[in-house]
Amino acid sequence: MSTNSVQQLLTKLYRNSLIFQGVLPRPLGSVKGKIATFQPGHWTDGFWPAMLLLGYSYGKDPVLWDEFQRYVPMLAERVADDPEINQMKGYLALDHDVGFIFHLTCVYKDLLEPDEESQAIGLKAAESLLSRYNEAGAFLKAWNDWEGDTPESRLDKQGKMIIDSLINVPLLFWAFHRTGKVEFQRAAERHVETVQKYIVRHDGSTYHTYNFDPLSGEPLGGRTGQGYDHESCWSRGQAWALYGFALAYRYTRRKDFLDTAIKCADYWVTSLLPSGDAPWDFNAPRNERLPIDSSAMSIAACGMLELWKFTGEQRFQDMAIADLNRLQAAHLAPAFPQAEAFLLHGTVGPAYQRGSEEERMFNYVHANQSLIYGDYFYFEALLRLHNPDVLLPWDF
């Protein structure tokens, strides 16, 4: 894989900025990699602005910096989490995904060019995440109630944590770094411990979510919202675990977190398809209809490179290169203007349903999609590999 890969992505980045003009790309793309725009208000709002900052960090082009500035008013509105503004603008209330929205944007901006407004937005987002910490169970509550939820699902959410949280937790580590307030560090570290204890299985595979009694903190068991079934291993969740525990080691230097990241990485590598692809779920039946998730592969590549950075073990770099080579060979979107996206073949869903194997296997929401978070982590992984001196959101 050559450095030309980075230049190709930068070309699309510049051209996409002319298309988006301060609007956000949809969370989902299309089979051919064309991307529509949409109004903000979702957990994916940070990924496109973050890609602009990655590009700026690489080349220090003020054009990309100025393009990022278009999104700051929206981020300031979103972190306020005002119910009236949310209703008027169609913003979802903030939940545990504030790291995806604000760490990759305002925190990153503050790292690149210290800025009081960005720092204030980042700290307010960190306070929002800290407010979700359940002391009894030592975990960060994942989701809010949604319109149409049943009473049972609302109760279920009160005691639910999910594996995606590990990439949001660095927001708390950064807030501790910025303020010295130990409550940020304590909540982050204890949450990672709880994920380690309950979501990671003995073989290194992971649950998507885990439930606790919200009052007593008693563990109730693992669940899935996006995998094949409750005891299977959703590949994007496995990638979040691999990368998240590696980042937790960065901020704590706790060897048990590093060991868990390696355990998750070993499961990842031994569970891939013979082609080197990551199926949407590692335990789903392996047949010609099994969806691939390129976004999981992008996230895992970042995690492998993080492990290589801190262990020096060549196998982790080799794993990342194999992952990225496969993405480039089989899942790269066509050149602009045929496609604005970087990657094809991401999969979102399915929501778990009881029923026949056919229903469980193929009732997914979207397969063969271009996913903005898959593109973000693909860009980050290439920069990590080819330009290790580039400042990333995690470098504090």
From TrEMBL:
It comes from the Bacteria. Keywords: Hydrolase. InterPro entries: 6-hairpin_glycosidase_sf (IPR008928), 6hp_glycosidase-like_sf (IPR012341), UG_Glycosaminoglycan_Hydrolase (IPR052369). Belongs to the glycosyl hydrolase 88 family. PANTHER family: HYDROLASE, PUTATIVE (AFU_ORTHOLOGUE AFUA_7G05090)-RELATED. This is Glycosyl hydrolase. It comes from Paenibacillus phytorum.
